[in-house]
Amino acid sequence: MVQAVERKKKEQEIVRKPSIYSMELDQLKSWLVENGEKPFRAEQIYKWLYEQRVAEFDEMSNLSKALREKLTESFSLTTLETIIQQTSKDGTIKFLFQLQDGYSIETVLMRHEYGNSICVTTQVGCRIGCTFCASTLGGLKRNLEAGEIVEQVVKVQKALDESGERVSHLVIMGIGEPFDNYDAMMSFLRTINHDKGLNIGARHITVSTSGIIPKIYKFADEKLQINFAVSLHAPNNEIRSKLMPINKAYKLPDLMDAIRYYVDKTGRRVTFEYGLFGSGVNDQVEHAEELADLIGDLKCHVNLIPVNYVPERDFVRTEKDQIFEFERTLKKRGINVTIRREQGSDIDAACGQLRAKERKEETR
């Protein structure tokens, strides 16, 4: 309680400057013109931010001192402070970052044969309330700025710079519901995909949602090449409502209509994230058959996820034999399916778990 009061006081005392990383290239050009500067300086600034990855505005040596002072007065270059960095034996790294107002978020680097992938966070906490997820403990505190999302990638890239590696893939599946912070998420995507930004290819980026239907239609109309995933986790309305309260507002049949609209509009397949929960919650053969009935007419892929144990939740992991039986059942029905490779099992692997352990006052 005392910590919560102290945090509130700190929030009131801090005058937060917006992150420079929130500025898309065209927005930065407009800002420069408004402040008596030449618009071509925007590309120079972008080069310092995304190629040189400087830590101070004063390091931008080809800019005038006056411009550097204007940037310093108007923007923050660093809005994230690394509090904890956990490294797994499989190379997975989980970062706990503290924001300017004292709240914390998680970002994860995962190493794959095809490259280095980052899982980014879009909100401090989450209001969706999925009953299996540590991210939603304590509810939603606030949305992240676009720049606070961008800086997660920059921070991890800086860590990779030491070994000459680069971020090649990106998933927006960390703490929070991306479509609940839609405008900031879209600004982040435009910057991170831009050839003057970090230049991560659209087909190497995946956005996931728990099923905010109006935003699915909006996202489909963007006609992006970005990959799209839906956290499904259940083959019917009853089970999904127990696991995911959002299903009471956006029911499964309506969600499937929105997903069909997306597939028809974009011509792209959708990935269904399906967490397997033991004790017969959603992991039996009959559940797999029902799931095949639900999605069998769609261009899709199913990603089966053996759930991580979260101390604050009661769910247990499905046995290996049952996982493989579930996979076989879907394959027999012609469904494209894989089992997610487990990573970071020796650290706080579950989404939101490190934050829940280290920042208990945020997640009560």
TrEMBL record:
Q: Which Pfam families match?
A: Radical_SAM (PF04055), RlmN_N (PF21016)
Q: Cite the active-site annotation.
A: E106, C351
A biological process (GO) of this protein is: tRNA methylation
**Boundaries of every Radical SAM core domain copy:** 112-346
List the catalysed reactions: adenosine(37) in tRNA + 2 reduced [2Fe-2S]-[ferredoxin] + 2 S-adenosyl-L-methionine = 2-methyladenosine(37) in tRNA + 5'-deoxyadenosine + L-methionine + 2 oxidized [2Fe-2S]-[ferredoxin] + S-adenosyl-L-homocysteine; adenosine(2503) in 23S rRNA + 2 reduced [2Fe-2S]-[ferredoxin] + 2 S-adenosyl-L-methionine = 2-methyladenosine(2503) in 23S rRNA + 5'-deoxyadenosine + L-methionine + 2 oxidized [2Fe-2S]-[ferredoxin] + S-adenosyl-L-homocysteine
Q: Which Gene Ontology terms of cellular component type are present?
A: cytoplasm
On cofactor binding, the record's note says: Binds 1 [4Fe-4S] cluster. The cluster is coordinated with 3 cysteines and an exchangeable S-adenosyl-L-methionine.
UniProt xrefs under InterPro entries = Aldolase_TIM (IPR013785), Methyltransferase_A (IPR040072), RlmN_N (IPR048641), RNA_MTrfase_RlmN (IPR027492), rRNA_lsu_MTrfase_RlmN/Cfr (IPR004383), rSAM (IPR007197), rSAM_sf (IPR058240)
Q: Where does this protein reside within or beyond the cell?
A: Cytoplasm
Q: Which UniProt keywords apply?
A: 4Fe-4S, Cytoplasm, Disulfide bond, Iron, Iron-sulfur, Metal-binding, Methyltransferase, rRNA processing, S-adenosyl-L-methionine, Transferase, tRNA processing
Additional remark text: Reaction proceeds by a ping-pong mechanism involving intermediate methylation of a conserved cysteine residue.
Function summary: Specifically methylates position 2 of adenine 2503 in 23S rRNA and position 2 of adenine 37 in tRNAs.
The family line of this record is:
Belongs to the radical SAM superfamily. RlmN family.
Q: What is this protein called?
A: Probable dual-specificity RNA methyltransferase RlmN
What is the originating organism of this protein?
Answer: Jeotgalibacillus soli
Which gene codes for it? Answer: rlmN
